[in-house]
Amino acid sequence: MNLKHFTIRVYGLIINNNNDEILISDEFQLGTKMTKFPGGGLEFGEGPADCIKREAIEEFGQEIKILNHFYTTDFFQKALFYKDYQLISIYYLIQFIEAIKFKISDKPFDFEKMENGNQSFRWKKISELNEEVFTFPIDRKVAEMLTEERMKGE
User: Fold this and answer.
1) Structural domain of residue 44, as residue ranges?
2) What pLDDT, on the 0 to 100 scale, is given for residue 153?
3) What is the CATH number of the domain that holds 83?
4) What is the pLDDT of residue 154?
5) pLDDT computed for residue 105 by the predictor
């Protein structure tokens, strides 16, 4: 393996405590259907906190507040879409500053066409998270951590 670069992704974990749910994103990107946590790529010159705030504006059209850091990748993960890249993902617990103003769907991939850039959001019960829900390995690890944390709190 001859990896030469890093790609850093930053994600937001938005928990609806009243219903024990977490917000997930269904997207069509790079010709692929994917279910993941909301967020995206760190741009050169910005820090991870600035990245998730920018991504929130881009994806939700709303500002967020960072509550705390939740997880940063602690194992090797080759990037799936980029040759010669290692992936590092950073997850923050976040909340909206104002009430949600965007559409929350009841079904996965709630958009008309599978075209690059299409995205929909839905709540998923934390107790129902499993590895089949998410497309990517690091999201699966975070889902497992969320489930374990909720079980401890019961």
Assistant:
1) 5-153
2) 66
3) 3.90.79.10
4) 58
5) 97
The rounded distance, in Å, linking the Cα atoms of 100 and 28 is 22
Cα–chain center distance at 16: 15
Q: C-alpha 144: how far from its chain's center? A: 14
Residue 90: beta bridge partners?
A: 10, 72
Query: CB–CB of 19/123 below 8 Å?
Result: yes
Q: How far apart are CA 107 and CA 123, in angstroms?
A: 9
Q: How far apart are CA 111 and CA 20, in angstroms?
A: 25
Total domain count, the chain:
1
Output the pTM of the full model.
Answer: 0.93
Instruction: Give the whole-angstrom CA distance, residue 114 versus residue 111.
Output: 8
The radius of gyration of the chain from alpha carbons, rounded to an integer in Å, stands at 15
